[in-house]
Amino acid sequence: MSDAHHHTCSCCADPQSGPPMSYGAPAPVVWKARYAWRRDSELTADLCMIKGKHFFVHGLVEIPVLDGDEAFSWGVWVSLSEPNFARTHDLWEDPAREQEPPYFGWLSTELPVYADSTLNLKTHVRTRAVGRRPLIELEPTDHPLAVEQREGITMARVRELADQLLRG
């Protein structure tokens, strides 16, 4: 095996082949640690409820990489209506969930690499096979994130994102 395309991550000694292909947010932007103590609020790796009134699902905005082998993905949170959240919850382990129509949702994750805020972008949430995160499709606007999802990005852009995120 050749090490030509491996580099060593600057923060640790592990060789990595290329930049990370996904990044995620641990919670919706409106979640606060104190909510964890409330009976009407909950945060899991997949779903979130705040004060029994606000409902979110964790999904992936997938962006085609034109010169790569796999898509780049942002792990984001999207708000759902209460009925759609209840349905998502009820169908969580049901293989028939793939037949669900897309749900409307507002993007609830701020991706700081974009100059324009990503909060409250309109999305469609597509339920996928059990065990896979929903696919988050952005409304086709001229927001840079929506453009990238539509048109794809290059590995050079993936490296640029990695640099921006590492610098914080």
Task: Provide a brief overview of the structure.
The protein has 168 residues and is of the alpha+beta class. It has helices at residues 82-90, 144-151, 155-167, and strands at 6-8, 15-17, 22-24, 42-43, 47-50, 54-63, 72-80, 103-107, 122-126, 135-138. The chain has one domain.
List keywords for this structure.
single chain; 168 residues
Describe this entry's structure for a reader.
This protein is of the alpha+beta class. It has one domain. It has three helices and ten strands; from the N terminus they run βββββββαβββαα. The strands form two sheets. Strands 3, 4, 5, 6, 7, 8, 9 and 10 form an eight-stranded mixed sheet that branches. Strands 1-2 form a two-stranded antiparallel ribbon.
Query: How large a portion of the residues is in β-strands, by DSSP E?
Result: 25-35%
> Assembly state here?
single chain
Total domains, how many? 1
Structural class: alpha+beta
Q: Detail the poorly predicted runs.
A: 1-15
Distance linking N and C termini: 33 Å
